[in-house]
Amino acid sequence: MNKIITAIIFSIFISSLAGCTTNYSSATQVEDSGYILLKGNFSNTVLHIDDTSTTIDETIARFKLNGHLVSKFPVSVGTHSVKVERNGITLINKKVLLSNAQTVELIIP
Which residues form the signal peptide (predicted)? Predict the structure, then answer.
């Protein structure tokens, strides 16, 4: 009788342990792009990123960030030539290196 009770208790114990195990997996998604963030007086400028030009006018999306009006442009990871012009005058001309999910802020005078 004692062996039967011990076997039952052992079976219940093993069954309860089996119910406590879980299978957990997670996936981390990494962005394959970074961003150029324009801040300052960027209205009526032209943004050149490598061979692509974008006129920054009222149709370009803007938002407030820390009390400043900004505009954000997605760019692939790597080194890029960035130039900002207004009325044919170059305001910024630099090379930037972007890594995954990095944002490079350019302050336009």
Answer: 1-18
